[in-house]
Every structure is written in structure tokens, then in C-alpha cells.
Specification:
Blueprint: E1 2-6, H1 16-20, E2 26-29, H2 42-54, E3 58-63, H3 69-73, H4 79-94, E4 99-103, E5 114-118, E6 124-128, H5 130-140, H6 152-164, H7 167-177, H8 190-197, H9 205-226, E7 229-233, H10 251-260, E8 266-271, H11 272-276, H12 283-290, E9 294-299, E10 302-304, E11 310-312, H13 322-338, E12 347-350, H14 371-388
Parallel strand pairs: 1-2, 1-12, 2-3, 3-4, 4-7, 7-8, 8-9, 9-12
Antiparallel strand pairs: 5-6, 6-11, 10-11
Bound molecules: D-mannose.
Residues 63-64, 101-103, 109-110, 180, 233, 298, 351, 367 line the site of D-mannose.
């Protein structure tokens, strides 16, 4: 397996020189500065690649080449958006970047209610708290339909939290929920969010699936021609949110996507932390089933609470059996090597990490610390070495 590290380019307070010391082999990045829907120019990709290569890394995975909201809502003339997407793909392929991670989450990417929840070790982690999410949806956003999605107990606690919270605490909650899109991104205030949620009125799960199928039909043939691999990132958390449908949340959803355009170029980013946040998901079994379509892996772990809350655990801690999962990935890799791709290695990255030690003194991107991820990478590296030892 190939060790990757996510780097946010000019937005990242962590330098490539620091990343070198983690031992990671390749960088995963994106041209975060380019607004969604526009073409990524060849020269900008080449310049980023040169910067990465000069620092001693390879760059083969892009995360993400974002899918414009209008493609997800199926509104307006989509041909120019698809044409731009295909052009960006061609420009990336020309520079040797051939694996594309993307997601199909309406409006929000990953969502947390607390970006620095304390863990007992003294570090901090990302947390999704059902009570705070309910407080946000019902009391701050005024989305009363959400009451049907939470237990009476969670709703009662949410009401109590809202009553006693200060303006600063409510602002911090909004900021946490909006934080999922580092780089070039839109953030909304409560009114802005209410307005933008209207763009999804009338779009249910089936409609979103139809728009997704169309997207695959428009881009996967180009991926095949260019020898590229698409890998969808699961919804995080893997459930509907803010009344928006989510269609990449479990094994059945992923099966539907694989069948919607049946091609080896249409694959999955196996994100153990995203899938693992739903107690109904057996991440190891999902990975086993999708083995030949896993083009990229995000390895991290979560602890779940019965009320639907979860927080990010140590990479080898938490509810998912990370060693069993890595074994599945190594087996999948061996099969693909034997089946005609002798040098194939599944690229993976240590996903997120606790902010710990000197991370706590720096202003880093939430979930993307230096020391916490280096610890995760080192632990995963040890598991891979151990399992590969003959
Ligand atoms: C969170 C990430 C996601 C991921 C995108 C892929 O930290 O795993 O933001 O990059 O969803 O499109």
C-alpha cells in the first residue's frame, strides 16, 4: 500500500518539508483555489506537481475534483459543467494524476459539531454530537421536520443546550458545522443556509440518484479513455443531514453506484471513518465486497454512542477492526497485482488525527494536524509491515 498525506497547498500551515519527516511517500491534494465548476488549467496542475516532486513526493491522487452543486441538483444547462470537468480530468491525466476522489454530498461535505473535543489523553478530536446537531437543526435553523429524526431524549437535551448556550457557543456550533470544506469554499450563516437549502427542494433520494447516474455517464467513459480511476468518497456522517438526501452512506448505496455505471474506472474511496460512523455498516465486509473497486483508502476510526453521536478515535482504537480492514486491502491489492497490474498499490492516507503535542500550539486545519496524523500513519505502517511479513 502506498502512503499518502493530504496537503492543502497554499492553505496548509504544514509545509512539505515537515511532511517529509513523517515518511509519507506521496501527496494527495487539489487546486483548492479554483472555484467549483471551472477548468483546472494544465499549467497550474503542472506547477503544483513540480512543487510536490521537488519536495520529494509523488502526486497521483486528487482529492477532490469537486462536483458542482448544479450537477447534483440537475439544474440549468449542465453541458458546459460536464465539459469543464472532463477537461480538468484530461489536464490531470496529462500530468500523471490519474485517481480522482470526489463526493456526491449535497451542499455540505463532512459535518461535525465540535472541532476540538477533549480526549482523555489531553489531545482533541473531531466530534459529531447528536444533541448539538438537533439543537442546531431545530432551534437555530428552525427546521422542525428534524424533530422526527431524533429521539425524545436527544430533543429534550437539545432544547436544554439551546436555552443555556451563549451567542458565542451558538456561533461556534455554526462554524463547526460549516467547516467541512477547506480551501475554496462557501460558508453560510443561518439565513444563508436556509436560502441555499431551498435549492434542494423537491430533490429526494431518487432524483439525486438520477443526477448521480447522469454524472457517471458523462465522466466515466472519459476516465476509461484516459486510464483514470474515479473513487467516490462516502457521506460523512453516513446519514441524511439537514433534510438533504444522502446516497453514498452504506454498502447498498455503494453497490448501486458500482452498478449505475459498471466499469473498473468507477470505484470507491474506502473511508473507514465515514462508513464506520453508522452502526449498521460492517466496514470490513463492505471492503471485502468492493475489493476490486477500491482505488483509494482513508484509514481512521470512530467511537460511537447509542444516541447517534460519534467521535474520532485513535487510528487503531475505536469500533472498526483496523487490522482486519488492512488485511482485506492487502489481499485486494495482491489479487489485482496477480490479475495483471503487477505494480499496483492501494494509495491510502491516515485520515484525520487527534490534535496533540505541538499541534495544540498551532493553528492547523481541523482534523489535519501534523503529529496526530503522523502517529496514525506510523501505527498503520506498522500494521502493514506486520501483515506483509512472511
Ligand atoms: C474530510 C474528507 C472529505 C473528503 C471529501 C472527498 O476530511 O475526508 O472532505 O476529502 O469528501 O470529496
Amino acid at each position: 500500500m502506498r502512503e499518502n498525506w493530504r496537503w492543502y497547498g497554499g492553505y496548509d500551515p504544514i509545509s512539505l518539508a515537515e511532511i517529509r519527516q513523517t515518511g509519507a511517500q506521496d501527496i494527495v491534494t487539489a487546486l483548492h483555489e479554483i472555484p467549483y465548476g471551472q477548468v483546472w488549467p494544465t499549467d497550474a496542475i503542472a506547477a503544483r506537481k513540480a512543487q510536490i516532486t521537488e519536495a520529494g513526493f509523488g502526486w497521483t491522487v486528487v482529492e477532490s475534483l469537486p462536483v458542482h452543486e448544479r450537477i447534483k441538483t440537475g439544474s440549468g444547462d449542465l453541458d458546459p459543467l460536464f465539459a469543464n470537468y472532463r477537461q480538468s480530468m484530461a489536464n490531470l491525466a496529462e500530468n500523471g494524476v490519474k485517481t480522482i476522489c470526489y463526493n456526491f454530498m449535497p451542499l455540505l461535505d463532512w459535518t461535525r459539531t465540535d472541532l476540538a473535543a477533549p480526549v482523555t489523553s489531553g489531545a482533541t478530536c473531531l466530534r459529531f454530537d447528536a444533541v448539538r446537531m438537533a439543537a442546531f437543526e431545530v432551534h437555530m435553523l428552525g427546521r422542525h421536520e428534524a424533530e422526527a429524526e431524533y429521539s425524545t431524549e436527544v430533543l429534550a437535551k437539545a432544547g436544554a443546550w439551546f436555552q443555556r448556550s451563549t451567542d458565542a457557543e451558538r456561533d461556534a456550533l455554526l462554524a463547526s458545522i460549516m467547516a467541512g470544506l477547506p480551501g475554496a469554499f462557501d460558508r453560510y450563516d443561518v439565513d444563508g443556509l436556509r436560502t441555499v437549502l431551498k435549492t434542494y427542494e423537491g430533490i429526494d433520494r431518487d432524483a439525486l440518484r438520477q443526477n448521480y447516474r447522469r454524472f457517471l455517464q458523462e465522466v466515466v467513459p472519459t476516465a476509461e479513455e484516459l486510464g483514470m480511476q474515479f473513487c467516490v468518497h462516502p457521506d460523512d456522517p453516513p446519514r441524511d443531514i439537514l433534510g438533504l438526501p444522502r446516497i453514498v452512506s452504506n454498502g447498498d448505496d455503494l453497490d448501486w453506484i458500482m452498478a449505475a455505471y459498471d466499469s473498473p474506472s468507477n470505484g470507491v474511496t474506502l473511508c473507514s471513518g465515514s462508513l464506520g460512523a453508522n452502526p449498521a455498516n460492517d466496514v470490513v465486509a463492505i471492503a471485502e465486497k468492493l475489493a476490486d473497486r477500491i482505488h483509494f483508502a482513508h484509514l481512521r476510526n470512530v467511537h460511537k454512542d447509542p444516541d447517534g453521536s460519534f467521535e474520532e478515535a485513535e487510528h487503531l482504537g475505536g469500533d472498526t477492526d483496523m487490522v482486519a480492514l488492512i488485511k482485506v486491502l492487502l489481499d485486494a491489492q495482491s489479487k489485482r497485482q496477480a490479475a495483471g497490474e503487477p505494480s499496483f498499490e492501494i494509495p491510502f492516507r491516515p485520515d484525520h488525527g487527534h490534535h496533540m503535542l505541538s499541534d495544540l500550539d498551532r493553528d492547523l486545519i481541523p482534523g489535519y494536524p501534523l503529529i496526530g496524523r503522523m502517529r496514525g500513519l506510523a501505527e498503520i505502517r506498522g500494521v502493514i509491515k506486520g501483515l506483509s511479513h512472511v
